[in-house]
Amino acid sequence: MNRVDADLLHALGELGDALAIFDGDFLVALNAPMQALLPGEVGGLAEDWAQPLHGLASALVAPLGVRMRCGVSGEYVAQRVALDARHVLLRLDDERERLHHLQRQLDDREGLLFTSRSLTVSEMGSVLAHELNQPIGATANLLRGLKLRLARRHPDDTDELAALDKAVQQVTYASQIIGRVREYTQSRQPKTERLDLVELVHQSLGLLDWDLQREAVRLVLRLPLQPVPVQGDAVMLQQVLINLLRNALDALRLDRPAEPLIDVELIVDGARAELRVGDNGPGITPQTEARLFVPFSSTKPNGMGLGLSICRSLIEMHQGRLWFTRRDAGGCCFHFALPVMTAAATPPTQERTT
């Protein structure tokens, strides 16, 4: 091992890679990152030096170029390459930060799914309460009217009158249950905090990056360079964004174009911020458009028809508006507009394609 090789090893170590050089079965040199990870005596046996890190000893005898995971949870990746006829360079990649980032992303997705389920149940309860309240009220009135007629015509039919009394009591009880459901669902109000819509878009896309890559969808972003502040509930607004993006992905799967595209644009116009999520999928028929926001109306085989209804409710909770248009080039575009916290001029926009 000459001085030039030692200097090269040191220089490479400045890049953050953990590196070691071996001469056959012996450890020749360690750079600083490797020394911090696995201290060892230069000149000793490579196998003895590698023992503290689970799996590294096996990686030292693996074929050159093969990547092998080491560590108790596989948090390191080891790979050997030949430097010359005698010397072998070992590179050890520390993937703990990447795994930690991936776990955070999975936790965020799980939290979003839990929130989505909670909001769906809440919206379903609100819709059912609204739809059932009218027929139950009408039934109670009919039973009361029937009881009055029976009491006038057959005042001695006590059994029938008692049965009608019980029926009215049961219907009244059902109406009270519905009233409690409505009180519970209506109590879910947005948390008011200052949010940056630009950052919220990036966070939402981060939760769907795997889906976008798997479907090979080209993503075009047209977002302002500076923050767009709004007042609202980050979880609720992110739920709307995720739902609109997933709908676009579903549309592209249904009838895949030659170059599938999702276009996300954020425009600030005075005191209003408008976000657009468009796709170049097959579009929808006028009949489907007429029922887009109607609860329990869905074109998906296993859909419940609550997604867009929930989205509209959440945006309206934020004093905003959600609507649909057709793209000139084909496909769908959903828009929602929210009041910005300060009336500012339209900021410059940065376009990015992935």
Write the layout of secondary structure elements.
Elements: H1 3-13, E1 18-23, E2 26-30, H2 32-37, H3 46-50, H4 56-59, E3 68-70, E4 76-82, E5 87-94, H5 96-153, H6 158-186, E6 193-196, H7 197-207, H8 209-214, E7 218-224, E8 229-232, H9 234-254, E9 261-269, E10 272-279, H10 286-290, H11 307-317, E11 321-326, E12 332-339, E13 349-353
Parallel strand pairs: 7-9
Antiparallel strand pairs: 1-2, 1-5, 3-4, 4-5, 6-8, 7-13, 9-10, 10-12, 11-12
Helix pairs in contact: 5-6, 7-9, 9-11
Brief synopsis:
The chain has 354 residues and is α+β, with helices and mostly antiparallel strands. It is built from 11 helices and 13 strands.
Q: Point out poorly predicted stretches.
A: 301-306
Known CATH architecture of the largest domain:
2-Layer Sandwich
| Principal-axes shape call | elongated
Q: Helix segment count?
A: 11
The strand line-up of the biggest sheet is 11-12-10-9-7-13
Give the number of DSSP strands.
Answer: 13
- Alpha-carbon distance between the two ends: 45 Å
Q: Strand count, sense and closure of the main sheet?
A: 6 strands, mixed
H and E order: HEEHHHEEEHHEHHEEHEEHHEEE
